[in-house]
Amino acid sequence: MRDVIIIGAGGGGPVVAKELAAQGLDVLMLEAGGRNANPEQDWTHFEDDGNNPLSGAQRFGPSDRSKPAWYRQLTTPAMNMNMAGVGGTTQIYFGNSPRAMPGAFKGYNGEDAADYDRNFEFPFSYEELRPYYEWVEETLPVQTAAMGKNEQLFYNACENIGMNCQTSRDISRDAYRPQQNAVLQPGGNAGLSSTASELTYPNATGCTMCGHCVQGCYEPLGAPRNLKAKRSTDNSYVPMALTADAWATKGKAASIISDAFVTKIHTSNVNGKSTATGVSWRNTLTGEVVSENAKVVVMAAGCLENPRLWQNSNLPNSHDWVGRGLTDHAFDLVCGQFPFDTGSTKGVGSSARADFPGKGCIEPTTIGPAFLAANLNMSDSGMRGYYDNGRGVYGQWDGPSGRPVGKELKSFLTDINKIMTMLIITDDDVEADNRVLPSSLLNDDNGAVSEITINKRTRSARTLANREFLANKAADILRAAGATNIVRADIVPLLIHVQSSMRMGDDPTNSVINANGEAHEVDALYIADNSALSNALGGPNPTLTTQALATRTSEKIMQKHFAGTPWVTSSSPLSSIDNLVTQAVMSRGL
Amino acid sequence: MKKNLPTIKTDGEEESSHFKQRRDFLTRSGIVGAVAAISPMLLASNKTQAGWISNSVIKQVLDAVTLDTFKGVTAFVMPGNDWHSITQGEATWGVGGLAANTDQYLLENLDNYLPWPKDIGNSILSALGGALSESAGSIPISLAILLKPVEVIILNALDKKLDALIGDSEVIPLGHVFSLILNITATIVNPLTINGGHISAFSRLTMSEKAQVFQRLETGEPSISDLIGGKLSAKENAFLPDLMSTFIRSLLQLATFGSMSEWHALDKNTKALNQIPIGWQLSNYLPNGPVEGHDDLLGYWQGRSEIDA
After folding, report:
1. Is residue A449 part of a domain?
2. Among A99, A123, A203, B43, which one is most buried in terms of CB atoms within 10 A?
3. Overall number of domains in chain A
4. Residue A26 exposed, middle or buried by CB count within 10 Å (0-12, 13-18, 19+)
5. Chain A nearest CA to B55, separation (Å)
6. Which of A144, A389, A406 has the CB atom closest to B218's CB atom?
7. Which residues on chain B are in Cβ contact (under 8 Å) with A142?
8. Is A388 part of any domain?
């Protein structure tokens, strides 16, 4: 019997694995997708090879790329961008690691308190989470983003419209700032050269500003896995978990099995209450079904899979809140066309941001032409010049929102280096009708598939108003930066920042897990990914908060089940780029 | 079946009753056009005889319809100086998405990787093949396609084989099925397009008419269930509208993604480019080819490379 089995090696699961392996527990991580052990060989910087949602290296599907992706039933217009494989969706994230807005937490009494989703706040204070933020920020590590042409243009534009620069990690006012990114700052030749032969490790360290975050990070070439620039968990927490015996005094190396799709959580009745005892998984390559027991089970399969697994396992759901309250940051895209080079294809996926407490965030992004063209075509406003699907919203952009097609799209993309793309990240409300269920209609090899409902058009008035505010503000910034033509896509839900489908709360009638991360209705069953978040955080990108929360949950697990004591406030973390980790990674060929 | 269905003139060849029932579907979906287009090739290669037709011929016919439809889609999102762009009335001086083989890209991805239920394509095709509903509208009899006797023989044989394939639960690729729906919808938008210069009705539409097809299918007016006339199971009817809407958005996204990506220029074995991709040329992306990094570092904003907690 294992001490702990963790379902999913994405943004949250490896955090628990690393923390508990460091405490000496016997930890097994199970990942439905591939191992991603050799990214320099297996991945490329090409958009289709990496990001094709059906057949790309980064997709929600089996590691065997000759097989179709896995199906999810969408009952409302949406686009799934959650990834399978070790690292999960952090494989393609930008490494953006802002803290949540303090207003999303219990006890917040700022003047703008009423601006947040007060009905679904975190069940503890922001101050309580702060040491866990600091712990994760040192572990990853999180660093201030370097500046390229794109960021300089953005900062100057923000200044031009009268915004202030924020110089602290805590968000307290409307302000712009360099991102705090889980990306190693450029060193050596990195950022100073475009010549490939000059950009190999150790002549180059950290981010080479290649502009390919969304294809997974394997730069600089030749660097040990834990020294790759982007701190996706496949480069940070997973290597640490697998080498915990080498760098933690009482550590025990965690195990990982990939291509292992968990299809059932087992429980037994202990003292009159359902208690997790283990899991069964299906080897996606052979079809073999394997079961193993554990004292504690941690769900970290993601917002769109945890509800499916819960219900396919027939776990209790007395209050029908499992899968409810899904938030997605109600994304949108506002793109500007410029008469000069904006550096829009270079550097980290996003190195700058503007935060608007109570409303959300805006960030300029670095993406290639195929990705941009496809994302513009996710519009919910029909086609510019032809039909508007009942929307076609007007604002500070040019013309109605919608997809550019034909000559307009071709003209818009004439020079990708003269575009700036703003991502709108809305502080959206937890709403019960937005949910994930196992489909009553469709099964795949792993059971009833996830059925996802998130109706953008019927979101709360606050959510919709926040989204409009941010879209207009983004257009203002673009105009101040010099954009001569601005298009708003008004996209359907883009399911990449997904949160709160198994939310944490004090009240079991509207939450699934308690303030310690343990299920209200199943003992020894914890949740430690984005689905555990209580709300949409006020808008900031969720990964850092998920990882801080997973660290806190690890302590709770250790205390309740293994007679341990908390360590975050009584010790210092080891960085994932520490030489102890590097030596272990290299000697073990990880 | 309703009155005033299109007639396939046969120069005296007798039509089977089954064939008569299905001619509306076969004409409007583009299958008749595909047979007319490729039958000389089939006959030349001796791949077909009266009353018999192989699976590979079925595939050739369906591929011909689907690829031509996807050419029309590609020209719509990313026009160029190609015939399909010219037909729609919106072309450009330089090449467009078709130069990147985006029609092939769509076919490969939608048929092989779309993770949708395997049997839904057969169900739709089976229902479509029976008869179209009133909501599909009528096609003037004067617009019928004139087929040569040998082409009718091929078409009859193909029709029987297609029916058998569906009945045998042979999986009909979804890309093919949905391309047929695009064509049927095209004939609703403009009945005149059952005949013309391309294989598929969709590719004969103007830019504005193509947009109307997407609008109908994206918004579900009329719904695909209505179009088929309630011949699907309750389960299939429950999710087909969402599936269709999702498909249309996916199709548009993939068409633009394929047009602008490296797919057509990438050697899948070596993972190296054999030319600068068309999409990169169109967008001035990485004009010197792939890079491992850029010399874009300007320092840190206001000199701060780190901040306090």
Report:
1. no
2. A99
3. 1
4. middle
5. 23
6. A389
7. none
8. yes
